[in-house]
From TrEMBL, chain A:
Annotated Gene3D superfamilies: Acyl-CoA dehydrogenase/oxidase, N-terminal domain, Butyryl-CoA Dehydrogenase, subunit A, domain 2, Butyryl-CoA Dehydrogenase, subunit A, domain 3
Keywords noted in UniProt: Oxidoreductase
Transmembrane domains' residue ranges: none
All residue ranges annotated as the Acyl-CoA dehydrogenase/oxidase N-terminal domain in the record: 12-124
Residue ranges constituting the Acyl-CoA oxidase/dehydrogenase middle domain according to the UniProt record: 128-224
The organism's place on the tree of life at top rank: Bacteria
Protein name: Acyl-CoA dehydrogenase family protein
TrEMBL record, chain B:
Keywords annotated in UniProt: FAD, Flavoprotein, Oxidoreductase
Keyword Metal-binding listed: no
Organism name: Sphingomonas oryzagri
Protein name listed in UniProt: Acyl-CoA dehydrogenase
Family: Belongs to the acyl-CoA dehydrogenase family.
Gene3D superfamilies to which the protein is assigned, alphabetical: Acyl-CoA dehydrogenase/oxidase, N-terminal domain, Butyryl-CoA Dehydrogenase, subunit A, domain 3
Source organism, top-level taxon: Bacteria
InterPro entries given in the database record: AcylCo_DH-like_C, AcylCo_DH/oxidase_C, AcylCoA_DH/ox_N_sf, AcylCoA_DH/oxidase_NM_dom_sf
Cofactor requirement: FAD
Domain annotation Acyl-CoA dehydrogenase/oxidase C-terminal: ranges: 173-301
Length: 384, 322
């Protein structure tokens, strides 16, 4: 079972992307304090995103005619890995580059592609994902936000989304909405719409999280009028599109590197203060070994994407283990530091640890919860 | 030669000589002569021996899944160990004895399958010694079903020791065996969950059981990926790769055995059920040639010593093949 998990090597031409990218991010990221870098894909920095776009690091998998680089999933893996491993603030372009662009490329009209994709590749426009609603979290098919066709074309949208990451900074939302039937119809009658967040009737309210940051939001739609070409893909095919989209969301290296800045800061601490502490060495080794294996697994899923498949089950498996790993890091590091109550710890490391500790529960929520992912794996095992 | 072309005959051979009934018999003390002669005749024992020395000249990378196949059947003979020993002896220009050879990676450790081996390749820390094994120099620890033994050897032939000794390669073989047994256990446990009914439906329809099996699948994939990191070499893995393989596979082994038993309920505890052939092996291989904590500390030391790199840089060479 799960025979597609084999060791894969990155092609040398994609590996070659690392060095020039390092030079670009070094000056913008290295000087940031650890606790800032520990935020990484929750750090919004439009300047960096535009610089990455200008240097050709966005839209790596998109065709050249839309401003992309025509390189593929491996190139994107390399770039993601480089950015995340130093804790670059990637939130601005991240969702657009990872999943919105794929969605538009595969399901959009030619006009939509020409409109959005070049701007995504330049790092100029940012997208958010409007899936969750107050009553629809894990049970995504129950969404109630509704778009009705209006006379003369277009849609009238009413409803509410919640937990929408960075809607307050973004330009567009791709929302999963009901266009026909009722929520009891489940997977039927759902569609995806591209919503310009500046359209009248759209209200975005940031929600402050437990760390004091405000990175997710609630979004209200009150008689929002959308043009006909707001519909992406087929009317009623929203569920299938969302499922394909989630394979992109769940498989990437971001699901293993969320706590890596903290891990490296802690390793530097051990190296400086007690390089021969056996328990710390064993912990450093254990986390290093798990990370190596998880990376190999993530790369195996990337290989499937590169081959044009939609590895939904494998991606769920990597996301579940990967987020469990990321979540274990702050708790284990806190224990290790606490094992030496008389040894000073740099305030930056203390703050990075506190941040990761508080935000870690979100790792296994965003992008689908642990229980839901395990349900998908169980389906892959033939149990349901 | 692709995987299937090479593996299928080996798998068929093993199915014929290493069925659960045959494993039980060997573990009960019946010996392994039929199994051994079938495997010797197949030529697989020289898979890793260079062609110049009369072998097949394959890499460990190529035969890694074959070692998994041995683990998947809990094969009660040191087939993988003998393959490695024969390759090392051939490289050293030493004539290879005919029978099964085990690898002993330290003086104090109990050596899996030593009760059915005729020779041991022992790592003293300074040299490798090839020694004959007989009733006088091996002692079973008396663990039911186990063919492991403590050794006290003498009378030897000395061979140059590879820089990192035998323990990394031995650990990688264990990791691959763990991965194979894990895969077999997952198949068995999923099948059982679909078969066994309680409360009017198969237990596999219960979400609580599905969640446990999903975790088991995750651990199996981790063990297998870890093992492949270890076997991704021509013959001898780097200590860092071996440490990655064994620490992750050993840790996964514990969880995999626990879930397999939990889902099987009482029947899995019984001697008559095949489950225990594989879960007992998992626990033995997990501890053999260094447990997860042993290897984690080694890898941690290597990680700290590499001052220049980030964790992402450090693991990159480990997680994709050279
Ligand atoms: C930091 C962060 C960012 C996010 N960003 C976005 C975003 O940009 N866009 C977006 O659309 N959403 C976003 N989300 C929302 C996220 O997708 C949801 O939180 C998630 O899908 C779970 O929904 P819920 O929070 O409503 O929990 P619920 O669905 O209410 O679940 C609560 C608990 O019950 C369990 N549960 C529910 N149903 C079952 C079941 N059938 N079987 C077993 N257990 C079950 C869940 O696993 C969970 O443990 C974000 C969340 C976080 C934390």
């Amino acid at each position: 079972m799960f025979d597609s998990f084999t060791l894969r090597a990155l092609p040398p031409e994609d590996e070659a992307l690392r060095e020039p990218l390092r030079a670009l991010i070094a000056e913008r990221v290295a000087a940031q304090p650890i606790d800032r870098r520990a935020r990484s894909w929750m750090g919004f920095d439009a300047d960096l995103s535009r610089a990455l776009g200008a240097a050709g690091y966005l839209g790596l998998t998109l065709p050249k005619r839309y401003g992309g680089q025509e390189r593929g999933a491996y190139a994107r893996f390399v770039v993601s890995e480089e950015l995340l491993s130093v804790g670059a603030p990637v939130a601005a372009h991240w969702i657009a580059d990872r999943q919105s662009a794929q969605l538009i490329l595969h399901f959009g009209t030619e006009a939509q592609r020409q409109d959005y994709l070049p701007r995504i590749c330049r790092g100029e426009i940012y997208f958010c994902i409007g899936m969750s609603e107050p009553g629809s979290g894990s049970d995504l098919a129950s969404v109630r936000t509704r778009a009705e066709p209006v006379e003369g074309g277009g849609w009238r949208l009413n409803g509410q989304k919640i937990w929408t990451t960075f809607a307050h900074h973004d330009d567009y939302m791709i929302a999963l909405v009901r266009t026909s039937g009722i929520s009891a119809d489940r997977h039927q009658g759902l569609s995806q719409l591209i919503i310009d967040l500046k359209t009248p009737g759209v209200t975005v309210r940031p929600i402050v999280d437990l760390t004091g940051d405000a990175h997710f939001t609630e979004v209200f739609f009150e008689d929002v009028h959308l043009p006909p070409d707001a519909l992406i893909g087929e009317e009623g095919a929203g569920w299938a599109q969302v499922t394909a989209e989630l394979a992109f969301e769940r498989s990437g290296p971001e699901r293993i590197y969320s706590s890596i800045v903290l891990l490296d800061a802690w390793i530097a601490h051990i190296r400086a203060h007690r390089p021969d502490d056996e328990a710390s060495l064993a912990l450093a080794g254990r986390l290093t070994a798990e990370l190596a294996v998880l990376r190999a697994m993530s790369l195996a899923v990337t290989a499937r994407l590169a081959e044009g498949e939609s590895p939904v089950i494998e991606a769920s498996l990597v996301k579940d283990i990967g987020t469990g790993f990321e979540q274990s890091i702050p708790a284990l590091i806190a224990d290790d530091l606490g094992r030496h109550p008389d040894q000073p710890v740099a305030p930056e490391l203390v703050r990075a640890l506190a941040f990761a500790t508080q935000i870690a529960p979100s790792y296994s929520l965003r992008g689908g919860t642990r229980e839901i992912l395990r349900g998908i794996i169980a389906r892959g095992l033939g149990l349901r | 030669m692709d995987d299937a072309e090479f593996l299928d005959p080996f798998a068929r051979l093993l199915d014929g000589v290493s069925s659960p009934a045959q494993v039980r018999a060997a573990q009960g003390g019946a010996g392994i002569s039929a199994l051994w002669s079938a495997i010797s005749e197949s030529g697989f024992l020289d898979a890793l021996v260079p062609e110049e020395a009369g072998g097949v000249g394959l890499t460990l990378r190529a035969v890694g899944s074959l070692v998994e196949g041995l683990g998947a059947r809990a094969t009660p003979a040191p087939v993988a160990e003998t393959m490695v020993a024969r390759a090392l002896l051939a490289e050293a220009g030493v004539a290879t004895p005919a029978g099964p050879i085990v690898l002993a990676t330290g003086s104090a450790s109990r050596v899996p399958l030593a009760m059915v081996a005729e020779h041991v390749l022992l790592d003293t820390g300074r040299a490798l010694l090839l020694c004959r094994l007989d009733e006088g120099n091996r002692r079973s620890a008396g663990v039911p079903g186990s063919l492991a033994a403590d050794l006290a050897v003498s009378g030897w032939q000395t061979i140059e020791r590879p820089a990192d000794g035998l323990r990394p390669i031995a650990a990688v073989l264990r990791a691959a065996q763990i991965a194979g047994a894990a895969s077999r256990l997952l198949d068995m446990t999923v099948a059982y969950a679909n078969e066994r009914s309680q409360f009017g439906k198969p237990i596999g329809k219960q979400q609580a059981i599905q969640q446990q099996l999903s975790v088991m699948a995750e651990k199996m994939v981790m063990a297998r990926m870890a093992a492949r990191i270890g076997t991704g070499y021509a013959l001898l893995p780097t200590p860092a790769a071996a440490a990655t393989a064994k620490s992750v596979a050993s840790a996964a082994a514990v969880d995999i055995a626990a879930i397999a038993h939990a889902v099987h309920g009482a029947i899995g505890i019984s001697e008559e059920h095949d489950l225990q052939l594989f879960t007992r092996s998992l626990h033995e291989w997990r501890a053999a040639d260094g447990s997860e904590s042993y290897w984690s500390a080694i890898l941690g030391r290597a990680r700290l010593a590499d001052e220049a790199s980030t964790s992402a840089d450090f693991i990159r060479t480990l997680s994709s093949p050279a």
